[in-house]
Amino acid sequence: MARDGRRRAGARVPDVPVSGLTLARRIRLWTPVACYFAAIFLVSSQSVPGGPGPGWDKLAHVAAFVVAGLLALRASHGGWAAPRARATLVALLVAIGYGGFDELHQALVPGRNASLADWLADAVGALLAVPCSAWIARLSSRGSGLRVGRGR
Fold it and tell me: Residue 13's closest CA among 63, 103, 82?
């Protein structure tokens, strides 16, 4: 919606300010983000990483942080909504910041090390989540039958 309360031309999803969400709704939106970050933390706490071989490692980082970015974008926008600058920036800072934290955490794990290249791959994944999120929001607002958590 425009600042004067009228609907913008072409806007399909109302621009609901996140500040208007109840605490319970915010908790429901951010809990998946926290759980996903906890899962990443547990995996990266393993001394001997059992994952993809050389070369595939960066792709795994990108894929993991596309998911992290999508979850953070959904939470910061109050659901699947057309991207808004401030909420998108918050989501990117959360996802990319966590990627940096995870790399620092790995420096403390025996047999692991921190890698700037891995953190950059995390950032690329989070950034790729923005157009994916916009696509999901567009599909869910069209009534395409795609139900993606448009709750209370």
Answer: 82
- What angle in degrees, to the nearest 10, is found between the helix axes of 85-107 and 116-141? 150
Q: In angstroms, rounded to a whole number, what is the distance separating the alpha carbons of residues 22 and 2?
A: 23
Q: What is the rounded distance in angstroms from the CA atom of residue 104 to the CA atom of residue 35? A: 19
Cα 149 → chain centroid? 15
Least confident stretch, 28-37, 52-61, 83-92, 130-139: 52-61
Residues 6+ apart with CB under 8 A from 144: none
Distance CA 127, CA 140 (A): 21
Domain boundaries, the chain: 19-141
C-alpha torsion angle, residues 21, 27, 28, 33 (rounded to 10): 120
pLDDT given at position 141: 79
Residue 73: strand, helix, or coil? helix
User: What predicted TM-score, i.e. pTM, was given to this entire model?
Assistant: 0.79
